[in-house]
# Entry
Amino acid sequence: MTDTPSNKALEAAKTALDTALDTALDTALDTAPDSAPSVRVQPGSFLTLHYRLSGPAGDIINTFDDKPATLSLGTGELSPALEAKLLGLAEGTRTTLQLAPGEAFGERNADMLQWVSKKILAEFGDPDEQYTEGEVVQFPTPDGTGRYAGAVRQVREDAVLFDFNHPLAGQPVAFEVHLIGVL
# Structure
């Protein structure tokens, strides 16, 4: 490039612009409020978050239109695969994580389809209960300290077929999350 008056003017303008940008950036950094380092999700963290779990058929759980959820990692409130996806995320993060079929809730297990006699259901529940396909029924755990759910798949006169697989077992899962607070 030759040193013509227009090239010299162009170089001078470029140098002035670079200097102005550097000065503005230094000023912005010097006057920025001190910010605490971002808090990141760790094993055992207590979280306040909005989240949505969805599969090919749509949402299973969605807290975005209601109050946020609170949970503690490592207590079984989320599947280990979902917890693993949260580890290392910073407070304030909003993202959607994709999990491969079976990764979030395992593969579908044929052994989790169980016929339960209506006699047993009447003995341990409401004897007048009418079961319908697609309905989700809550059962007490054997030790009586918790509950688990089964979806009605078929109804016969003497028994009901329940599917105790997670509704998203064996399916790809989208896990949208907005981490509001991390302790």
Observations:
- The chain is about 20% helix and 30% strand.
- The CA atoms of residues 6 and 12 lie 10 Å apart.
- Helices lie at 5-31, 80-86, 118-124.
- The chain has a mean pLDDT of 87.
